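Q: Structure tokens for this one, please.
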Amino acid sequence: MKKVTMRDVAKKANVSLATVSRALSGTGYIKQDTMELVINACKELGYTSILRNMNCGTSANLIGVITADLKNEFNIFLIEGITKIARQHNYEVVVYDQQEDPKRSFQALDVFSKIPLNGIILTPVMDTTTLKFEYLGMLEKLKVPLVLVDRDLQYSHFDGVFLDNVYGGFDATMALIKAGHTKIATITGTHSSLTGHDRLTGYKKAMQIQKLNLRKEYIKSGEFTIDGGYRGIRELMDMPDPPTAIFVANSVMMKGVLRLIQERNMRIPEDIAMLTFDDLLNHISVPNLSVVSQPMKEMGEKAMELLLDRICEPSHYTHHTVRIVLNPTIILRGSERKVKKHSH
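A: Here is the predicted structure, written as tokens:
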């Protein structure tokens, strides 16, 4: 039997999801006839227990957001999307920054366990292997709806909104291959991160499908840091047989890559072709940079919408896990091109 959600109620009553949320949570002004439409729709759809058991509005109307690292602009856009939908439904957002530190992951749960939250949206730290089952157990004990966003947690059964990172890595590498490159390197993220692992998998998949030589020395771990990106491209460019193109797995590492390129007075794509994940860099300094663009705000919005559905379900309902996977978009501006070097 298909479960009924707030979205179904909104459709039945011919009102917005925000209106249903306000009506059922008792927050915000709702006309009497609109309230009756929502209640009648709930009854017709068998959603009546929601009126007794739902968690909407029973605490402080607070959503906890545990973000990975606010130094990464990606997370700012993610939170912007979350906050937009939260405020439409009269929820306020409390943010805890883990700073990519597993210790702070545990501290975040300790802090949020003492706050009357309606739900939590979580982006795990990169090194999820250090969290172990103890962390999953602590998440379960919070006993509030929880939605993962951007990064998954191995062995968890939480709802989540993610990006198809394998597809993104594959598409980026294929763009470089289509431009005529055969010696393609990658500066990848943390291997213990599912995000980093999947983008590397996409790179390998494209190289293997096109029957290109997969050289281990062309795969550098930049650990998703500026310094890691800098070290990665330095090692690649100092090789006796350097690559002609590089796929950089995120914009933070790309900042380090650009630093070395500027130091050595290199040009993109004349001296090295480039394609990076995330469209977050200054287009004035790198106007021709080709990117794999993520729907960052949309990921945040969908995570919040999914959390709202969970918050406003009967407390006894055992749901099936919902996993929403969005596709990235590749934007080619010219940095992926292969430029023939003329001998003098």
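A few notes: The longest helix spans residues 73-88. Residues 165-294 form a domain with the Rossmann fold fold (CATH 3.40.50.2300).
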